[in-house]
Amino acid sequence: MAAPVYPAWVSRWVSGQWRQKKRPPVFRPTRPLVLANKVANRREQAGEATCITEMSVMMACWKQNDFNDTACAEEIRMFYDCVAKAEKERKDQNEEDTLSPRGNLSSTSSVCGVGPLGYYNGSLAVTEAGAECLNWAEFPDYVQQYPDRGLGDHNHCRNPDGGTTPWCFYRLASGAIGWANCDCNQGAVRLAEDSSVELYFSGLWGTICADHWTDWDASVVCRQLGLSEIGTAGKKSHPGLWPVPLHLQSANCHGDEKALLQCGYRDAVSGACKQGSAMVTCVPPEGVGAPLRLVGGKESFEGRVEVYHDGKWGTICDDQWDDRDAEVVCRQLGLSGNPKALSWAHYGQGSGPILLDEVECSGNELSLDQCKKSEWGQQNCDHIEDAGVSCDPFTEGTVRLAGGHSPSEGRVEVYYNGNWGTVCDDGWTDLSAQVVCRQLGFSGPATLASEGDYAAGQGFILLDDVACAGTELSLLDCPHSNWGQHDCSHTEDVGVRCSPESNTVMDGSLGPPVRLVDGESTKEGRVEVFLNGQWGSVCDDGWTDRDAAVVCRQLGFSGTAKARAMAYFGEGHGPIHLDNVECTGTEHALGQCARPDTGIHSCWHSEDAGVICDYVEEKIQDIRTGPESGVCGMRLLHRRKKRIIGGNKSLRFGIDVRRYLLRVGDYHTGVKDEFERELSVERIVLHRNYWAGSNDNDIALVRMRGREGHCLSFNHHVLPVCLPDRKEKSEINRQACIISGWGDTGKSYSRTLLQGVVPLLPREDCEVRYGQKFTNRMICAGNLSEDKRVDSCQGDSGGPLMCQRSNGRWIILGITSWGYGCGRKDSPGVYTKVSKYVPWIKKVTKLK
């Protein structure tokens, strides 16, 4: 390869012929200049500011006159005049910045320090004018002249000649080669008076987009400024034009970097920033417990757990570390997903102190501080035992469609062990496609895509020989090969086309798709949004009718919308995608409303939001009994006074009527329902043969206070149930009786009314289990199979066991009474047999 051709002054300099007094008198400002009235072309403006044009003219004159100063006196004078003018502008700017708290560069932000080798050895490759440095390999003579000064096949700035400021060669607009000092303030940060972050980049101060700005990014800024180790992220809106350039679209810091430009940042994209510019507060964030961060992971939701205490970040030893501890860490960090504990420095070894050991959480704590653990600093570990967590937002077996023209079609990809991979088409049919679409929330027909409809995938092929029957709820329920075992190539990647269901909107232009789940119709249910390849719920923080109106409008409903909170339609099971949604009520889709970043929340599924669309206020009609009232037991109980039937165990405060309140039409115990009504108690009647030490004769009657025939109203949500005959001979469905209540679900009492389907069990089964405690005034019921146990539980006492007659009427066959535990395989629930007490009920209520 031919040697490069240099201008004469460069050649003389490289070959050692350059006289020291003839070295180009280049203007070397101590800090970059920012010319407010010149912002169109940074490189050309900076070139003017540093007198590159005048220098080029002077150099050309020297070249033509064999470096004769006298012949080039005018050119030299013009250059020095330019230098003097630029120096004056620099001093004026310095004075202005000194007076303004916004102007100070971070004392720790300079990147041009001389290293232990005696020269700058960093990766800076930009001149003060914003020009990109040339590769030193283009100047072999100079590399040979300074063999041990860090020169080589790279374009990083260096100071091989022993100067205090590194420099490099660069190419002028004319094509000639020049040299200039490097911009040692590249990457410097400062805080404006309103705490906005400003970054010095390519010769100009600018801002950072706040769309993906996190506390990790803010902490790096605070560390770079030397203010603190912990920062809290904020956002500043810009209704009009941005006042300064936008440099970065996102910082993507892990939180342990020493400077912002050490993070995996992305350059700004024009018009893509929606949430304003980044702000920082350099104090610990408000919240419960010592601050935590995740370090060393490939994603922001995983990493080595580090805790901040007494001014230092430190690690946690993995002794006793398990998924319950990981769940608390993820909750404290506001990360949804599936918590997983990792040990043995899975994300690399830390370097600071080991601050905690023997952490033992129950999994319900709000912060690590609330868990059982060692004293701060007490441990017997090494960093090889550093604990880590993954708060993976994806569940194993999650599916997504990729490469399609809409969210309802594409190449099938499945998530396993932290990786997405494709599915081979061996044995694949429309039945398997139906399962994938059902798992994604589509209820319409599904079809197998033709070969080549979607681009081939990359990476892992995770499943092969999938053979679904079409009824499964998840692809993992279908027979398939072992994970990763296949004999396929990506040309055999399978694709599907799904048909959206009526209460799901999958139009990607409207933002995240939404659907309603677990409602009584397609017009109501828990709100779920489709993000990151899976459906997730919305937290009810700030959830109002305005938010509900937007959801209903996105789903195509135009009527009145009502918001429901506190898991009104039951708790979800996947991630919680959104929180603190703030709609004005005029948006066309939930994705257009203001909200924090996806997955950031401080919620439980007990706070899942719901909506009712096309809401109509129900008309409540009084039920007035008279001689024509005939066959329904509850109506018959209303002949004289309104009566409710229940168990004695539900009357835990005795028979003092002042200690009770009757509530009808209640669905959610924490929410006032429109059809809910509270009534006073006038009288309580216990069965005369009941005593507290026995489970027998566990039945009571309650009379409500009010005017005869007018104290209780029935509607769609408040209905009577019929009394059974004393000797119930009608045909009833003994395999599908209903129990309901707000009892214990295994974690806590339910906030919403639950129901379950249970079969009546033969008396012999109950007598074998309970012996003489099980009398002929009792019945037992329950679905106690290994895979699906259904049973009444603590808190359900007094609730009904209802079965349906062949004529369609429901009768109250039993009252929840007692049992051994809840849902035990060999211990079905025991119920008071109501038919045995029909004569007593009629006598007390004076019913015929």
Automatic annotation (TrEMBL):
Residues covered by the Peptidase S1 domain: 632-846
GO cellular component terms, A-Z: extracellular region; membrane
Taxon lineage: Eukaryota, Metazoa, Chordata, Craniata, Vertebrata
Localization: Membrane; Secreted
Protein name per its UniProtKB record: Neurotrypsin
Statement: the UniProt record of this protein carries the keyword Disulfide bond: yes
Annotated S-S bridges: C209-C273, C253-C263, C317-C381, C330-C391, C361-C371, C424-C488, C437-C498, C468-C478, C539-C603, C552-C613, C583-C593
Pfam families the record matches: Kringle, SRCR, Trypsin
Domain (SRCR): residue spans on this chain: 170-283, 292-392, 399-499, 514-614
Ranges of residues in domain Kringle: 111-187
The keyword Cytoplasm is assigned to this record: no
Topology in the lipid bilayer: Single-pass membrane protein
Keywords from the named record: Disulfide bond, Glycoprotein, Kringle, Membrane, Repeat, Secreted, Signal, Transmembrane, Transmembrane helix
Function of the molecule: Plays a role in neuronal plasticity and the proteolytic action may subserve structural reorganizations associated with learning and memory operations.
